[in-house]
Amino acid sequence: MAPTRRALVTGVTGQDGSYLAELLLDQGYEVVGMVRRSSTVNFERIAHIQDSLRLVPGDVLDEVSLLEILREHRPNEVYNLAAQSFVQTSWRQPVFTGEATALGVTRILDAIRLTDPEIRFYQASSSEMFGKVREVPQHEQTSFHPRSPYGVAKVYGHWITVNYRESYGLHASSGILFNHESPRRGLEFVTRKVSHAVARIKLGLDSEVRLGNLESKRDWGYAGDYVRAMWAMLQQDEPDDYVVATGETHSVRELCEVAFERAGLDWERHVVVDEQFFRPAEVDLLVGDASKARDRIAWTTEVGFVELIQMMVDADIDLLHREGA
Ligand code: NDP
Ligand code: GDR
């Protein structure tokens, strides 16, 4: 019988961490999830699988904690999903964003190099690295021009991953993932902000939602589809970089139309444009070319844009009902 594989997931309490942990458990892995200390428990996204996970304390700001976890748990694969991931916050906390989202990657790579260089490593890179895009659609060779401190930090994380692969021969891969959403998306991100607002308006708890730039466009996919690509990258003989995207782009305005329509509401009566949600610099047109992921790791999407947004609206209406609204 093949030995049980063990994976460490940083950021396991986040949207992607929860879907990835489910997938790895389904594949028979022992899953070690790193959680950082906080004054209240925030395990909502993993509550349903918590008993099957081994949760260990650690922080990407603290290299000793990473070394200890690797020494004690000896994973075969490490998925680095931990980050300060909200773009807007990165202008207000640029140094913290750099510490967690950029240098955090080096801390983990170094801990791997020192404890067990055979560990396979996944880095959660981002389409935000393309920023002020040089070409449309964006692929693995498109040059980067990040437009936020978050994007700059992710560029660092990406290149340090490539560098440790080339310097030390680590099996380190970088997934350049475009936006992916789900009912577990944080409430501050625009898709979930809208789906949650639609549910509240539908149930009479609110009358409006205040948004920023309605013209910005994103390539939005479903998080459950995207974590399959992360896993597939680490099953390849050779480490590499892959763009993961749907290849379709939609505006925030279209997102509003689909979401409000799902609840039988007219978005124009409830959406208010508010300057405070505009960004100092914007990424205008992100759309990814995932041909390499399709060809080399057989990655495909199962959930399209409209289905995704409808799923999120339905889930938020259910959630509010369960909360007794
Ligand atoms: P979330 O914001 O939902 O989750 C981020 C996770 O990182 C949380 O578990 C958070 O813990 C953890 N974390 C934050 N800071 C630290 C720290 N200092 N030490 C340890 N853990 C920390 O993000 P997503 O799940 O959406 O994204 C996962 C990764 O993928 C991120 O790196 C993100 O930047 C990247 N990415 C995401 C995309 C998307 O569209 N979702 C697209 C491209 C890249 P806590 O719960 O305690 O806050
Ligand atoms: P993004 O996601 O910045 O692409 O980063 P977000 O959902 O925050 O913004 C998408 C677009 O919507 C516009 N927008 C608004 N955004 C928010 N959050 N709130 C609003 O009210 C609002 N109004 C309009 C934004 O200007 C933007 O153009 C996400 C994160 O998950 C990153 O971690 C990840 O790397 C990238 O996706 C790919």
Structure explained in plain terms:
- With 325 residues, the chain is an alpha/beta fold.
- The protein has 2 domains: 6-180 and 221-244, NAD(P)-binding Rossmann-like Domain (Rossmann fold, 3-Layer(aba) Sandwich), CATH 3.40.50.720; 186-218 and 248-286 and 303-322, UDP-galactose 4-epimerase, domain 1 (Alpha-Beta Complex).
- Helix content is 41%, strand content 16%.
- The chain is built from 10 helices and 13 strands.
- It has helices spanning 15-26, 63-73, 87-92, 94-115, 149-168, 190-202, 223-234, 252-262, 291-297, 305-322, and strands at residues 6-10, 30-35, 54-57, 77-80, 120-126, 171-177, 180-181, 209-211, 217-218, 221-222, 241-244, 250-251, 271-273.
- The protein has a 7-stranded parallel β-sheet, with helices on both faces.
- Helix 1 links the parallel strand 1 and strand 2.
- Helix 2 packs parallel to helix 4.
- The longest helix is centred in the first third of the chain and has 22 residues, at 94-115.
- The radius of gyration is 19 Å and the shape is globular.
- The mean pLDDT is 97.
- Bound molecules: NADPH dihydro-nicotinamide-adenine-dinucleotide phosphate and guanosine-5'-diphosphate-rhamnose.
- The site of guanosine-5'-diphosphate-rhamnose has 21 residues, from helix 3 and helix 6.
